[in-house]
C-alpha cells in the first residue's frame, strides 16, 4: 500500500470556493483524519507485514482452489448460499499463509475489498477497537464511488448536506483550494461579523453561511475518533453498510455494490489473537447479522484456531451461509510439508556445497514430516535450525530428540527448547522473549538498551524476518504465538519456565538499567514517547513488591540509582502512588525508622510531589512500618499504578 503526502502549500487561506473532489488525493496515514483510528499494520500489504508467510508454490492448492471457487460462485451468483467461510486449524497449520496468499490473489484480480490480520503482539491489532475503521479505510480506497459517502458518514453528514456544501460557491472567482478534502469537514457556527481566521493550517477551511460544513484538518479526526467508542454493529452500519447502499443507489446498480465494482472479498485472519473473547464473539456475531439482516455484500473469510469461545459462537449462528474448512483434517498437509522441506534442503545444500544426493536421507525428511504432524511451523523452525554453519549436526540433534508422544505440541516444543538451550544464557533468553512480547513497540535497539547487551544470535531463529538490511531500529516480532504458549505452560517448557515471581526477580534490574542508561544515551538516534517510558515505569513499580529485595546486589542498585532521571520521567500522580513501594523491611525499614534505600527513594518522591502540589499520605502513617497492621492496611488501599 502506498501512503502519500498531501500538498504542502497552506500559506494562503481561501474562502468561499467549491470544496475539492475527495477522490483527488490518496488517503494518507500522516495527515488525514484516519490516522489515529486505523491499524495500518493489519492490512495485508502493509510495510509491517513485509515478511508475511505465504503458501509455498504447489502447496495448499486444494484449499486455495476451494476458497477461490466459493468466491467465484458468490460473485457470479450461481450458488450464492455460502458467504462466510471459517478457516479453522490448530497452531502452525498455515492459516495465515493461506489467508495472505488468497488476499494477494484477490488484490491482483481486483476483488479484495479489505483485510485485517490480527496479532497478539501488536496493541493496534490485538483488539477490535480499530477493526471496523481499518476495513472502512480500505473499502473507501478499493471501491470506486464509496469514499465520499464513507467519509461523510464518518462525520455525520447526510448526502444532501454534502451536495449543498459542494454546490455552494459565493466567490467563484477565488482560486481552488488544495490540500484538504471532504475528510476534514466539521460544523462550526459562523456569522458575517466574524473575521477570517489567520492561524494557518489549524484554521484552513471554508467559512460559509451557518449550518454549512466548514473544512478543517482537525475536525475530521475528532469526529471519526468519536465513532471508535461506538459498538461494532453501529460502526459497521455507519461506516460501511449505509455508504455502500447510498453509492449503489446513486449508480443505479442492480447489485448492492456500486455499478461495475467487483471488490467484495473481506479477509480476517487470526481472530483468536484478538485478546478479548467477548470481542472475538462480537466480531463474528456482528458480521453474521450484517450479512443476514443488512445484506452486507461481502464474501467473508475468517481464520482462527478452534478456541472454545469462537467454536461456541460459530455453532450458535451456524446456518446455510456458513462453510467450514478444517485444516486439522486436511490430508494434503504432509505432502505439502515434504515439498517445502525438499525445496529448502536443496537451497541449504547449494549454500553449504553439500552433495544433495548424500544429504539429507529420504528417511530424515520422512521423519521430519511425521514430527510436523501437519504443522508447517515445525518445518519452518527446523529449517531455520539447519540453515546455520553446521547443518548436518543440527539435523542430527533435531532427529535425536524424537519423542514417542501423542501430545500435538511435543515436537515443536523440542525445537523451541533446542533454540533456547543454544543461547549463552537460556534464562535471560526467556526473559528477553517475554519482554518483547509485553512491549510491542520494542525495536532491536530498545531490546539491546533494555538488556544492556546484544541480542543472542540464536534468538533470531524465533523472530520474524527483518528487512534485508537490518539496523538497530528494525522491529523485533516473535515469529509465532505458539512460542508464547510454550513459555506460559510449565508442562511444556519444563526448566525453562519462569513463574511470575521468578520473572519479576529476573527482570527488575533491567528496568533500573534501562532508565539509568537512557539518560546517558540521549545522543543516540532513538526517541521514546512518554507513554512508552511511563509503561516501563509502571511495570517497575508493579514488579518491585514481588522481587527478592533481600538480595544485596539489587539493594545496591536501588541505592545507587540515578533518581533524578527516574523522577523526571514520572508523573507526580504516579510518584504519589509509589510512595509506599519502597518502605519495606527487606530494604532495612524498621517500625519507626526507614532504611537508607527507602529514605533516598521517598525523599525524591516527596520533593517532586510537593513541588507539583500533589498530596502525599499523612505523616503519622508515613512513620509506620510496612509490616505493622495499620501500615499493611494503608499500603493495600494505595495502588502502585
Automatic annotation (TrEMBL):
A Pfam family of this chain: NPHP3_N
Gene3D superfamilies associated with the record: P-loop containing nucleotide triphosphate hydrolases
Keyword terms: Repeat
Keyword check for Hydrolase: no
InterPro entries per the UniProt record, alphabetical: NPHP3-like_N, P-loop_NTPase
Residue stretches making up the Nephrocystin 3-like N-terminal domain: 76-155
Protein name, as recorded: Nephrocystin 3-like N-terminal domain-containing protein
Organism of origin: Coprinopsis marcescibilis (Agaric fungus)
